[in-house]
Amino acid sequence: MNNDFSSLKTALKDGTDCSSTATFNGVCHCVEKTQPSAFILENVDSMDTSSGEEDDREQTKSNLQMALNYLEGLGYTCCAEKLKTSDYGVPQRRTRYYIFGISNKDKFAVSAKEIIKLIPARLTACMSVNSPIDHFLLKDDDRVVLAELNRRLNAGDRRAQRKASSEPGPSSSGDKWREQHSNLAEQLGVKWPLTPSTQLTQSRWFE
Questions:
Q1: Rg of the chain over all Cα atoms, to the nearest angstrom
Q2: CA–CA separation, 174 vs 195, rounded Å?
Q3: The pLDDT of residue 142
Q4: What pLDDT sits at residue 181?
Q5: What is the pLDDT of residues 18-29, one digit of tens each?
Q6: Which of 8, 73, 131, 178 would be 89's cystine partner, CB 3.0–4.6 Å?
Q7: Residue 32 phi/psi, 5° resolution?
Q8: E-assigned strands of the chain?
Q9: How many other CB atoms are there within 10 angstroms of residue 68's CB atom?
Q10: Distance between CA 178 and CA 194 in Å, rounded?
């Protein structure tokens, strides 16, 4: 879904489309056509802000409420929960809204409304300690990792050759900027906040 719903009310009212609503409209179209038994949508936590104009005759609703109303109009019982991904073992500090939708047409052991009521408790049960970052990264010997390492090493070799031959290259301006920045920091007595470990400096990636 899109992170800008400021024009959602107008778009849904008169059928217009714009960049701020294109993704949302696409998601709704997909839900309407495929009719899934359930869905989970994710969006930024700022979608609970108001999207109405001060002179709007209709009661001003938040972007979140408008999205929920529209999805419920497609035949779903919905709820929205604001969650921190880091509370569920994902190594990133993001707060996002997750919209859960259950079809009113499909036959479940309990009603869609009853399922929706259970979601907060189920989410609490799923909370876990953060997993190590290694669980989400590719292995050191993965072909994609090795290909990127070789690309960087080759680029470093080319820069070294240009510097040795005094030939201007695409990175010459960047090198000058880094040198000026380093010299200024030295003059001001600024110390870098991090000192790389021996293990890091011995890594080929550190080059």
A1: 26
A2: 23
A3: 92
A4: 79
A5: 555 788 888 999
A6: 131
A7: -65, -40
A8: 38-44, 76-84, 95-103
A9: 19
A10: 17
All structural domains of the chain with their residue ranges: 8-132, 138-206
pLDDT value, residue 82: 92
In this model, does residue 117 exceed pLDDT 50? yes
pLDDT band at 143 (very low <50, low <70, confident <90, very high): very high
Rounded Cα–Cα distance for residues 195 and 182 (Å): 15
Q: Which residue has the tokens 């300690």?
A: 129
Instruction: Say if pTM beats, i.e. exceeds, 0.70.
Output: no
Closest CA to 93 of 84, 81, 102, 83: 84
Helix (H, G, I), strand (E, B) or coil at 50: strand
In single-letter form, the type of residue at position 56 comes to D
| Tokens 């709007």 found at | 56
Return d(Cα 123, Cα 131) in angstroms, integer: 17
For residues 63 and 11, the answer to whether their CB atoms sit within 8 Å is: no
CB 39 within 8 A of CB 31: yes
Reading the block at residue 89, the tokens are 């073992």
Mean pLDDT of 151-162: 84
